[in-house]
Amino acid sequence: MLPRILICGKIVWAHDDVKNLLGNISEVIHMDSHSRYDFLEGFRPGGKYSNVVGIYRENTSAEKIGVFDKELIDGLSPSVKWIAHNGAGYDPVDVHACISRGIYLSNTPGAVDDATATTALYLLISAVRQFSIAERSLRALNWKPADLAAKAHDLTGRTLAILGLGGIGLRLAELVHAFPMRVIYYSRHKVTNAPSYCEYFENVEEMLAQTDILSVHVPLREETVHLVGENWIRALKPGAIIINTARGKVIDEEAMIRSLEDGHLAAVGLDVFANEPQVNPRLLEFPQVALLPHVGTENQDSQRKMEVRALTNLRDCLVKGMGEDLVSEFKNAPKL
Description:
Strand content: 15-25%
Radius of gyration: 22 Å
Helix content: 25-40%
Structural class: alpha/beta
Number of strands: 12
C-alpha cells in the first residue's frame, strides 16, 4: 500500500507537479471537509484520512478548518509524520505542538525571496519619494502637491537597515545596492555569506541610530511579537521610515502610529498588519503611508514556486526521510 498524502487547500499552478513529484510514490487525496470537526473525525481509525503520512497545508484551508493550532495537531493520527506548509512564514502552524507530536514541519523559504524583496523595494521607494501622496493627489484630479519636494528624498546614499538578513533580506540588499544605498543589518548572528557591502551590527540600537529606512524581515514567533516596539522605534533617526513585509505583529502598531503622529517617523510602508484582514483605520489617516493588502507573493511565478517547493518537501520526506526546508526549530532532527 502506498503512503497517503493529504492536500489541505488549493493547488492552483502546480497540478502537473503533484503527479510528477508524488504520483508514483504515494496516494494523493484531497481534503473534502467543510468544518474542523469533520476534518478531525477523518483522522480517527478507519476515517477518510486514516493512514495519512504527510500533509500539504495552504492558507485557504483555514477558511474551513482553521489554522493548524495545538487542538488540530493533537487530533491528527499517529501516522502523520510531516506537514509541508506553503509559505515562508509558518506562524499558522503551532510548531511546538508539532515537536511534541513528533511531526516535522517544513516551509518554502527561497521561493518567496524575490517577490517579497521586490514588494519591500516598492514600499521603500514609495515611502522615501512620497509617491503615495502624489498618487492620491492625481486621483483627486489635483495634479501634484505643491510641497511634495520638501517631503521627499532620493534613495541614493540613504542608509537602509535590514532587521533579519535571511533570504529575503539578502535579496533586498542586492536590489538597493544598485542605487547605491548603504546597507547595514542586525541578525542573531553575523551572516557568513553576506556581501561585503552589508555591514553587521552586534548592537541593534547602535544600528537604528544610523538608520534612514528600517526594513523588517524576521519571522513571527512568541519572542518576536512587538520586537520593534517603542524603544526601537524611538532609537531610529528622527524622520526615519519603517518598511514591513514580514508579519504585522512583529511591530508594535500603536507605538508606530504614535511616532507617525508626532513626526518621529516620516512614513511607513506596510504589506502586513497586526489584525489581518482588518487594518487599523488610523493608518489610513496618514497620506504619506504606503499600504498594500498582504500581496507580497501574489504573482503566479512565486506561487507556483511555493507550491512546488512544498510538494518537493513531501517527496523528499517519502524518498529521503527528510525534506530540505525543515523549519529552524527542528535543527539536527534525525531522519524519519
